[in-house]
Amino acid sequence: MLTRSLVLSAILFGLGVAGVVVRRNAIILFMCIELMLNAVNLAFVALSRAAGIEGQIFVFFVMTVAAAEAAVGLAIIISIFRHAETVDMKNFNLLRW
Amino acid sequence: MEHAGFRPVLLGLIVLLPLAGFVINGAVALLAPARKRIVTWAGPGVLALAFALALVNFFGMLGVELEQAIVRDYWSWMPVGNLEVAAALQLDQLSMLMTLIVTGVSFVIHVYSVGYMGDDPGYARYFAYLNLFVFFMLVLVLGANFPVMFVGWEGVGLCSYLLIGFWFRDREKADAGKKAFIVNRIGDLGFMVAMLLLFTNLGSLDFEEVFRAAPATLAYGGALVTTITLFLFLGATGKSAQIPLYIWLPDAMAGPTPVSALIHAATMVTAGVYMVARTGVLFALAPVSMIVVAGIGALTALFAATIGLAQYDIKKVLAYSTVSQLGYMFLAVGVGAFGTGMFHLMTHAFFKALLFRGSGAVIHAVHGAFHHTHKEWDPQDMRNMGGLRHYLPLTWIVMWIGTLAISGVWPFAGFFSKDEIIWQAAARAVGPFAPWFTAFWAMAIAAAVLTAFYMTRLMIMTFHGEIRCGAAECTHLHEVPAVMSLPLVVLAGLSTVGGWVNMPHAIAELPVLGWLPSAEWIHAWLEPAVRPAEAILGPRLGALNEAAPLGGGEAFWAAVAFALAVVVIGVGSSVVLRWKYRPALESLEPVGLKKVLYRKWYVDEAYETLIVRPVVATSRALWRLVDEALIDNVLVNGAGYTSRAFGWAGSRLQTGQLNTYAFAVVLGALILLGFMLL
After folding, report:
1. Could A20 and B656 be called an inter-chain contact, meaning their C-beta atoms sit closer than 8 Å?
2. pLDDT given at position A97
3. Would you give the DSSP letter of residue B584?
4. Confidence (pLDDT) at B18
5. pLDDT at B119
6. Is residue A97 part of a domain?
7. Residue B368: pLDDT over 70
8. How far apart (Å, rounded) are the C-alpha atoms in residues A14 and A3?
């Protein structure tokens, strides 16, 4: 049971990482990040069975942070869209030299 | 140390008065250069007061047997570790004599300058510099230790530089100022090294301490004391224009003529002689140094006199004459006759200041005449003069007095001082170095003959013979105003009687010449000041060689020198009168030996080739290769280039694309993971 849960968590996390590295759409990127967070949540929950209640408590923290991040992140994306009429990240390279 | 019978009156004020004059005139120069009346009163005024104070002190000292110098400590100047240097002045017979000469001659020259510089736009600035010079000169002669003396020493050098380059818009004059300053730096280095050696070996820099400790601490004739004195003498050759550092003085004539008279004839250039006399104890301990001093002096006296023979610029002749006379002074102090050296210093201050100011009057008149008719001739070239005695009778007479004085004609001042030097060189020719001294004696005699001749040549070319300056110009030649002629008369008087204060016993006892008073007064006066040095010299010297050389005593040789001078002047006059001169522009370049002398033995050219050019070339190479190429480009800019290159390479990693960064993060995480697993 534990092994399967962790494998699923790893697959989900890997999908999230792959999405962040490959995709350009800001909304997709955002969702991939959420996917990674929730993959970690799954790992926490699975491990709390064996190791104790702390894992589940951490999940609440992660969900809180994810919620806050969603609020701020989506607001930024909307503001970017209003400014540039696109959310394709290849158009935003202000951090260059 | 206070003396029961004598307290110096306002000693500090003598020094401070010229400084006050400098402040006042400097303020006028900066704020209101047109207010000449203030300067006219303040400039010479402070000197009059200082001279009066010096006289008060002098008369106070006259009746007192002052055994030791009176030292006045004002404040502690450099308390560093066990070095304790006080800002202190000292008054003894030597510094008293110098103070009288400096303030007296300065006062007369300040008065003369009122007339000479009256029309110059830099009038206030000129007097500010001149007053500052007198201040530093007094610090030099009155300082009670080496550092205070050094302050004065450097200060007069600075003022000399400022005044030589007074008309600094003329490139040549500004360069002459620089030359004087730079050549003096070489000498100053010697002075500083000597000071450091003295401090490390004796632990003090106070004159009193050093001279008391020196005979016990420093071995007679030892390498150490010889080194110290030779370094001191290097300083003296710079300041007093002796071989090999004399080259700045003739160029220094670029300054206003009163400056040439005051700084470059009467006072500053004698500082070296004064310094050797002041440190006589050290020199007495180093017989080799004494020989060097005397030898350089005799050589300079002869060498400069030969150059003076062939110069056409009236001030150049006098400049080389000054170098030559300074050589005499060093010959005197070099043979151990400190009093005689100081005596010649005094009489020279009188007659050379007179000659310079006489030449100033001539230049003033000729310049004015050429200026009137817009003639572009050199007003200092004697070939453009001739016959001026009809137009400048007073200047003519006082210049002849100066000429007779410098040539050593009885009873003018130079006769007593110069012949005493020659006599002392002969009389002290005892002991192991006797042949040397005899040679110096012969050189001094030869230089005396040359002196009489070049001065006669100067007089004849300037004042006698046909008038070469042009008929139209002659009507504009005017005798100097009273403010300039009065100082001339005063100095002419001093040049006449100034020598009588030191009538030698040998002459005072003669039937005809012996009517004059005060036999050997200078020696009696300076005796306490030079006693420590004499105490070292005397026992080793033994009895003076009264009969040397070639037999005949002091009176005999004085008579011979007198006869020589008269004969040279007489014969020289008729010879030079017969030479036909043309105005400078129509004259041919001199040829043969005359050309060598006219070109000053090519010494300036030799220095240019041997020293100046290599130094300039080395500096240029260092500038181009080391400074610009190595330090600027390789090191300083190189550091910048390197960090910029690294920055450029690093900045290539920043794409601005979010995915790239994410990829880098993943890569990093995988690498970390790899490390943890392995």
Report:
1. no
2. 60
3. G
4. 93
5. 83
6. no
7. yes
8. 16
**How many Å apart are CA B206 and CA B545, to the nearest integer?**
35
- Residue A61: give its domain's CATH number: 1.10.287.3510
Residues of chain B above pLDDT 70, percent: 95
| Residues of A at the B interface, defined by Cβ within 8 angstroms | 17, 20-24, 29, 89-90, 92-97
CA distance A23 to chain B (A): 8
| ipTM (interface pTM) | 0.85
Residue whose structure tokens are 């009256």 = B118
Structure tokens at B543: 């009895």
Contact between B71 and B89 under an 8 Å Cβ cutoff? The reply is yes
For residue B660, which residues of chain A lie inside 8 Å, CB to CB? none
Under a CB-based contact definition with an 8 Å cutoff, are residues B103 and B50 in contact? yes
In a domain, A26, yes or no: yes
Confidence of residue B583 (pLDDT cuts 50, 70, 90): confident
pTM of the model: 0.80
Q: Which residues of B touch A93 (CB under 8 A)?
A: 655-657
Q: Rounded to the nearest 10 degrees, what angle do helices B146-164 and B271-278 cross at?
A: 170
Q: Name every residue whose Cβ is closer than 8 Å to that of residue B62 and which is 6 or more positions away in sequence.
A: none
Q: Can you tell me the distance from the alpha carbon of B303 to that of B450, in angstroms, rounded to the nearest whole number?
A: 10
- Report chain A residues whose CB lies below 8 A from the CB of B656: 92-96
The beta-carbon neighbor of A96 closest among B654, B659, B666 is B654
Q: Looking at residue B1, what is its pLDDT?
A: 43
What tokens were used for B515? 């009517």
Which 3 state secondary structure label does DSSP give B79? strand
Please provide the size of chain B in residues. 678
Question: How far apart, in whole angstroms, are the C-alpha atoms of residue B429 and residue B298?
Answer: 14
Instruction: Identify all chain A residues contacting B663, using CB atoms and an 8 Å cutoff.
Output: 21
Residue B249 has pLDDT above 60, yes or no: yes
Q: Give the best residue of B658, B666, B670 to mutate against chain A (max A CB count within 10 A).
A: B658
| Integer Cα distance of B470 and B202 in angstroms | 65
Q: Above 50 in pLDDT, residue B2?
A: no
**At which residue do the structure tokens 């970390």 appear?**
B672
Q: State which residue of chain A sits closest to B647, comparing Cα positions.
A: A97
CB contact under 8 A, B656 and A89: no
Contact B657, A97 (CB under 8 A): no
Average pLDDT of chain B is 87
Q: Which domain holds residue A50?
A: 2-90
The Cα of A22 is separated from the nearest Cα of chain B by a number of Å equal to 7
| Pairing outcome for strands B83-91 and B70-80 | antiparallel
Nearest CB among B654, B655, B659 relative to A21 is that of B659
For chain B, the residues whose C-beta falls within 8 A of a C-beta of chain A are 651-652, 654-659, 662-663, 666
More confident site: B613 or B507: B613
Q: Show residues of chain B in contact with A20, CB under 8 Å.
A: 659, 662, 666
Residue closest to B410 by CA, chosen among B517, B308, B496: B496
Residue B152 CB partners (closer than 8 Å, separation 6+): B136, B137, B138, B139, B140, B141, B143
Tokens read off for B281: 């104890």
Cis peptide before B583 (omega within 30 of 0): no
The region that residue B310 occupies, defined by phi over 0 for left and psi between -120 and 50 for alpha, beta otherwise, is alpha
Residue B623 CB coordination number (10 Å):
11
Task: Count structural domains, chain A.
Answer: 1
Dihedral pair phi/psi, residue B326, rounded to 5°: -60, -35
